[in-house]
Amino acid sequence: MKAFILDKYKKGGALRFGDRPEPELADEDVLVDIHAAGLNPLDSKIRDGAFKPLLPYRPPFILGHDMAGRVVRVGAKVGRFKAGDEVYARPRDGRIGTLAERIAVHADDLALKPRNLTMEEAAAVPLVGLTAWQALVDRAGLRKGQKILIHAGSGGVGTFAIQLAKHLGATVATTTSTANVDLVRSLGADVVIDYKTQDFETLLSGYDVVLNSLGDATLQKSLSVLKPGGKLISISGPPDPDFARQKGLNWGLRQLMRLLSFGIRRKAKGRGLAYSFLFMRADGRQLSQITALIEAGAIRPVMDRVFPFGATNDALAYLDTGRSKGKVVVKLK
């Protein structure tokens, strides 16, 4: 089958378009014919080698974390899906590879595609949808009447998280550039901070939750907007000891995670706040709950551009500019 292959880790490096063996199907797997694949900053970071200590993929391998497609066949122990079903997923770590014509996905990672979305729209959802769900529902326990600051509101995670937070009944503030103010307002943001002309840390206070996807300077400033008991959740790091334990990392890496996050954890604790790092996990059950929200009209995917499969390297280069509004998607069929 045709695929885009990472032959070696290299910052900004191009993927090779070539042939790979057909996926092998285990008893609990579903073989999917991929129609569209979403791109994420995580793809770029893995390509660049930033996650080598945490996600030790061994080149050559197929990149890609989001997909939508049609079931070709199912393993002997799979009962929830059948050939012909339209599905979508973020395959679990260690089994990525959506920039290919086909993929074998564990059935637990898979969900039926929202009926009201195209394949391209559906492929834009899994990683960002699960990230937002696990941050706001699982980690923050966000509920009606609370206040949340979502950084980078026009990005993939941000556009989804704003809508989910509004569905949960929260008051939502977000940071974005001047060009994207109208977009985030259309998604439901109550307070919009134009980071080019305004400082969020001087304008906001008394927040229950902050979802951070930006750098260390923004992370540090975010402490000041939270009230005692508030939660600072970061999807951009630094990783913390709980993450190291969940991943089963060795003693050396656990100590490194402890050291990297020591400063922000200490500052948060000193203010009566909680800091945690979130690295989302594949979960078909949660994705099914997201499907229900999309079909009910509570959330819609926000897409920037769709590239043809042959232009996957161009799509990654565009993603790397950091200027996309919502998701960048590759269309295979």
TrEMBL record:
Species: Ancylobacter vacuolatus
The protein's name: NADPH:quinone reductase-like Zn-dependent oxidoreductase
UniProtKB keywords: Oxidoreductase
Domain Enoyl reductase (ER): 12-330
This protein's record includes keyword Ribosomal protein: no
Source superkingdom: Bacteria
Pfam families for the chain: ADH_N, ADH_zinc_N_2
